[in-house]
DUF2255 family protein
Amino acid sequence: MANWTSDELDTIGGAEELRIAPLHDDGTEHGPVTIWVVRHGDALYVRSAGGRRGHWFNAARERHEGRVLAGGLERNVRFVEQGDDATNEAIDAVYRDKYRGYGARYVDPIVGADARAATLSLVPRSA
């Protein structure tokens, strides 16, 4: 399994937004969607604000592969569902800290139960 480099973690994890483009089962790319991204330790995470009903989230679950672009860096990734409560609590804290300037109106949904149930880890993969 590939790992993120320190520079990639800093660049993507430090970006305000990330463009995510999951691949459908037939290999075509779902149109890119702009979302928030956080770093926790040596891992990168994204959540669907719409929870498990989110269109891009369901596209990501079809093939578990896609592409992300953040901070000028573009990478092919695998999407791994995250369900560990302790990790999700830590991810909540990172979302609250990183995006606190947006206010509770935007932050509360991304740390709510629906979005928490739609948490994906981004894992780098070869082209």
User: Anything to note?
Assistant: The chain has five helices and seven strands. The chain has one domain: 6-124.
